[in-house]
Amino acid sequence: MSTAFLGMPELPGGHGNLRGAQEFPHAARQALGNRQLRDNLAHATGAIRAKRSAVVDEVPDWEELRAAGSAVKADTLARLPDLLEQLESAVQARGGVVHWARDAEEANRIVTELAAQRDAREVVKVKSMATQEIGLDAALDAAGITATETDLAELIVQLDDDRPSHILVPAIHRNRREIAEIFAEHMRDDQGRPLTDPGDDPAALTEAARRYLREKFLRTPVAISGANFAVAETGTLCVVESEGNGRMCLTLPDTLITVMGIEKVVPTWRDLEIFLQLLPRSSTGERMNPYTSMWSGVHGEGGTPDGPREFHLVLLDNGRTRALSDEVGRQALHCIRCSACLNVCPVYSRTGGHAYGSTYPGPIGAILSPLLTGMDAGDTNASLPFASTLCGACYDVCPVKIDIPSVLVHLRGQATRSGHRTERTTMRLLAWLMSSAGRFTAAQRLMRLGRFGARNGRFRRLPPPLSGWTDHRDLPAPPRRTFRQWWAARRHRDGGGTR
Amino acid sequence: MSARSEILARVRAALADNPAVHRVPREYRQHSRDAGTAELVEMFGERLAEYTARVHRAAPEHSPAGITAEVLRARGARSAVVARGLPARWRPTTASITLVDDAGLDIDELDHTDAAVTGCAVAIAETGTLVLDAGADQGRRAISLIPDHHVCVVRTDQIVGTVAEALAALDPLRPLTFVSGPSATSDIELDRVEGVHGPRHLDVIVTPVEC
């Protein structure tokens, strides 16, 4: 309905780490069986929810900021071609080089070649969703280049050969004891000796990570980052962080390569005044995150460089134009990756992020991942729009007012049309039955026969394909008498008058 | 077709329904109080201190240089790097602290320096934020990044109320660093730990305009 404009072929979907091997219900069932995981998640999401509401409630004009943020994003998408060209010229004018990547493979190739041309055997990375999405670390590794993740949680995930499970806190599924074990096993010096035995105190673990990464920051000539925002009118890139690993990567290496989704552009410098208020409060629950860095091309005065001497910006599509072509779904591209929707979601806070399969978990992932990849028959991402109770908490906390529940319902419709044959056939049959009073009455009469299979007024188990329902819940038996029969009898008893 | 033309063509195809261009409603607060008012200065200090930065108020009769020296000594710093443009009245002049003017120090030299003393471009009261723009009294970004102790001098007239006012006062074409407390992480069980890769200690000295 919304993707099929006149004569327009469907735009290509994204590749990389955007779908899991299993459908959500199967992956979720495994996650729910992990008691430790559920405890870790309950603790962490509860803590961050409380912090967020405290700093959001103190802002008197929060709703006005949300409205403005949402409008800037909608305006950006409507004028995206012009803004991308404007951003490109602004970055070039200040000494940057701009590359365009149709998909994950092309972006990985561009970055790998840039690193290889600079003889880099090692690169340092700032936490970035876009490079997780395209699987850049693996691509670099295949080319013999070691990428070190420098955000603490990303480092934990990388050392353990694990996958991130939260947008902001990728190791949210691990507690301090598990992290101490990962560090003890994997943090080794050049001779392969354990670097440290820091115990499981978060401060000691953090100190160990500082020592482990310090030399890499000071020596590595190429850094790779993502971007939270890019200002079209000035060519200004912006990275928001906490630990200072971002500042290290953005300031010390000779070459900086930034990979950014095309939807991250904003039109004007002034627009950042909105997002720099919305993002930290929604994300970490702080009035402001410890560090935000902004740069426009290459900097330096009087022959003394300030920061990298070379700056490359890779603009990434990888399914974003596909998502943009969906009139209802395109608002998912407003997302500023704050992760507030994950922390309030009754589904995410129990299953965790791995069950979603994609780099983007939680409510936003349940719409963004299928919008980026499409949902062909048999696609595991077709199960994601159903990974929600539609309670609406995600919409309430979204700083850019993405109506996630409506997009979920819209995508459920698409998934049903493209897959789920049983559901589609059932819905067609129901539509046929319900469109005629005679057929509907006959069907209700027929349903009463089903009462014989019920015990205590409930079905506990139905045969396939209806077992999909009774696997998780029982089904009330049809009543002895339908509402319409009761109503007709009542009117008859009252003398048939209308009231 | 080049990737650039193909992506732009895809974007135009995706927008074939011509979505409406939205007017952005900017009904949020632009201004709070005039810069440097006592309430703003108070709020700035309180909020910055909540991030465990240490905030010092220089009374008009005190020389900022004296406070700078005290703050450096209190953390055990014996050397400090400064930009050449750092005003003389902010420079500590005690024999116990070696002051190094940055004339292109390399990374190792900075790594062996205990502290950095800088000014700032603007400060935000509501969020407890300092913004550095590599101005003459600040120097390049590496100075306030590599040494483990950052001392920042803020004049009260640089303290504005809102994020919007700060952005209006900044030049986006300069390299900008927003600093709200010392470096921190909450990546382990959402427990906040101060002091990761950026300076682990942040001291902020608030001085009256005439200093």
Short description:
The complex is a heterodimer of chains A (499) and B (211). With 499 residues, chain A is an alpha/beta fold. Chain A has 22 helices and 14 strands.
Describe the structure.
The complex is a heterodimer of chains A (499) and B (211). Chain A is an alpha/beta fold. Among the domains of chain A are: 40-316, 3-Layer(aba) Sandwich (Rossmann fold), CATH 3.40.50.10420; 422-493, no CATH class. Chain A is built from 22 helices and 14 strands. Chain A has helices at 24-32, 35-57, 62-78, 80-93, 104-117, 129-134, 136-142, 152-159, 176-186, 202-219, 245-251, 272-283, 320-324, 340-344, 348-351, 362-373, 393-397, 404-418, 421-434, 437-448, 467-470, 483-493; strands at residues 96-101, 122-125, 146-149, 222-225, 229-231, 236-241, 255-261, 265-266, 291-296, 300-301, 304-305, 310-316, 458-459, 475-476. In chain A, strands 1-12-7-4-2-3 form a six-stranded parallel beta sheet, sandwiched between helices. In chain A, strands 8-5-6-9 form a four-stranded mixed beta sheet. In chain A, strands 10-11 form a two-stranded antiparallel ribbon. In chain A, β10 (300-301) and β11 form a beta hairpin. In chain A, α3 (62-78) crosses α12 and α16 (362-373) crosses α18. Chain A is globular. Chain A starts with 23 loop residues before the first helix and ends in a 6-residue tail after the last helix. With 211 residues, chain B is of the alpha/beta class. Chain B has a single domain (31-207), classed as 3-Layer(aba) Sandwich (Rossmann fold), CATH 3.40.50.10420. Helices cover 23% and strands 25% of the residues of chain B. In chain B, a hairpin with a 4-residue loop joins β5 (122-124) and β6 (129-132). The longest helix of chain B has 13 residues, at 38-50. The radius of gyration of chain B is 21 Å and the shape is globular. The termini of chain B are far apart. The model of chain B has no long low-confidence stretch (mean pLDDT 93). Classes of the chains: A alpha/beta (499), B alpha/beta (211). At the A-B interface, α2, α3, α4, β1 and α8 of A face α1, α4, α5, β9 and β10 of B. β9 of chain A pairs antiparallel with β9 (176-179) of chain B.
